[in-house]
């Protein structure tokens, strides 16, 4: 039996509008930042990184985690033991990315070690070292954009207020994220 569900096209349109706006602000911001002096760039990027950390931390701890824990609380609104698993999974996610970077570096070093033996190891090592961060940035950014879209969509499904709150947090985070990614790709 097929289950019918209603699609709220107004919320879908608002969600798509905000995701598009967030991505376009990052692209336009990066283009503007190219024309700034290094000192001005550093001051602006520091300001936006602080906005990103503050908005994402605030959104996570005051908006997202309480919603995630709502079903893991007893009748007195006290957290049950199983709610700690969410925090553990979050911490494991951070460590998983750390170990992925290490694993990619090890793989590229092993590839370098099995190549033709010449006396320019430092040049090959630098080339192998450059691939690891690039792949981490590409995979991490894809996963990051997927999670951003899912969180914005889920927030708009819950309510317009939630959707706007999450969209604002993602908007504050996206500019330093994209400009930092551009910086690392140029540096590597």
UniProtKB/TrEMBL annotation:
Statement: the UniProt record of this protein carries the keyword Protein biosynthesis: no
GO cellular component, one term: plasma membrane
Any one GO MF annotation of this record: monoatomic cation:bicarbonate symporter activity
GO biological process, alphabetically ordered: intracellular monoatomic cation homeostasis; zinc ion import across plasma membrane
Superkingdom of origin: Eukaryota
Bilayer topology annotation: Multi-pass membrane protein
Residues annotated as transmembrane: 12-32, 44-65, 85-104
Keyword terms of this UniProt record: Membrane, Transmembrane, Transmembrane helix
Subcellular localization(s) per the UniProt record: Membrane
UniProt record similarity statement: Belongs to the ZIP transporter (TC 2.A.5) family.
Protein name: Uncharacterized protein
Species of provenance: Caenorhabditis nigoni
